[in-house]
Amino acid sequence: MPLLVSTDSFDDVIRSSRPASAAFLPGIDRLLADDDRLDALRHRRVGLLTHAACRTADGTQSASALDDALAGASKPGLACLFAPEHGLAADRQAGASVADHRGGADGIDVVSLYGERQAPTPEHLDAIDILIIDLRDVGVRCYTYATTAAIAAEAALNAEIDVIICDRENPLGPQIAGPSLEPGLRSFLAYFATPFVHGRTLGSLVADALIEHPRSAGLTVISAQSGEAVNEGSFVPPSPALQSRDAVQFYPGLVLFEGTNLSEGRGTPLPFCCIGAPWLDAAAAAAAANNWSVGVAASACDIEPVAGDYAGQTLPAIRFERTGPKCDGFGLGVRLLAWIAGTQREFRWRTAPVMPLDPDSGDPAQAPSERYVIDTLLGSDSLRKALDRGERAEDIFALWNV
């Protein structure tokens, strides 16, 4: 059967989709190897929440592999597909709306769970008997796939529909860093009561979030086979702006710059591997960064974004590269923010509306409100307030570690 998602616009993804090493086996592979479970699923209408970047160990898209495994002489495969942010094809830019597609993937309806709708409707749930989830997280709370998984799983359990999460390894491993969620700042980007860099897998996040649900026993997590935290055998971008392993490692810190008047490299060949601004003293910032023990080498360069506030401008920037297999991306980002806030007079925090967790609630208290973007990303105002007071990065880390 052909791939469920057209790959005409996915050259970078396909070129990098070599088979994974034997040390890494996603939960979807363990499901596909479980004949008894598959046989039971063939008698049920199965919905799958996933996207094209989710692959089996041999590089097959999960949706295609599961559809083939469930199909039989008297039964089609998957009943429907659900898509998170970036869409089923994983090619929509951050924040872009994602539309439904009737029969969009080999005749299978595709339901968007990003934007105005965040959960399957009763009509969608009436069409399935079980929901399977296979999404790739990157170990940072503001990355939206885990939030979508939790909201979809809760909706399914509410409708007395069982849920199976095919888990994947956290590419950052077990590291934990940053502030815990402040309840008043909970949002779609700050959903889980964890530190910002949470050290968890998507499956464990969702299972813990729903542990008090009356039907929590209807949620099953198929864990990934243990292996290296970062699989060096192959890389498939989990979203358009994370095009390399370096970008994933730097993301916990450089995503914070979305809350500032600097570019984090979106619209350049180096998203989340550089930062820049017209007023940035890039040489001095790179020199400072090279004195920090974060496993990163920094160098001054120029970037020219094709999107964002600085589209079409040539910006002085800093490019980052790992000096070993692992690095402290979050530590890099906080130290860099502290250096820039303390030395660059043009530095500013951005504000933007925050969309509610339930856009259709009609509750005035859930209406979009203006907020500092950095507070929304972190689920905490502690970093912004500390930097505005002129505190050092090390003092901020100590505050979070109390």
Brief account:
Helix content is 27%, strand content 16%.
Q: Mind explaining what this structure looks like?
A:
With 402 residues, the chain is an alpha/beta fold. 27% of the residues lie in helices and 16% in strands. It has 13 helices and 14 strands. The protein has a seven-stranded mixed beta sheet with strand order 3-4-2-1-5-6-9. The chain has a three-stranded antiparallel beta sheet with strand order 10-12-11. Helix 6 links the parallel strand 5 (130-133) and strand 6. The chain is elongated. It starts with 10 loop residues before the first helix and ends with a helix. 48% of the residues are buried. Residues 1-22, 228-232 and 361-365 have low confidence and may be disordered.
How do the helices and strands follow one another from N- to C-terminus?
A: HHHEHEEEHEHEEEHEHEHEEHEEHHH
Strand content: 15-25%
CATH class of the largest domain: Alpha Beta
CATH H-tier superfamily of the largest domain: Uncharacterised protein PF07075, DUF1343
Alpha carbon gap, first and last residue:
54 Å
Radius of gyration: 21 Å
Task: Please describe the structure with a list of short key phrases separated by commas or semicolons.
about 400 residues, alpha/beta, Rossmann fold, Aspartate Aminotransferase, domain 1, 2 domains
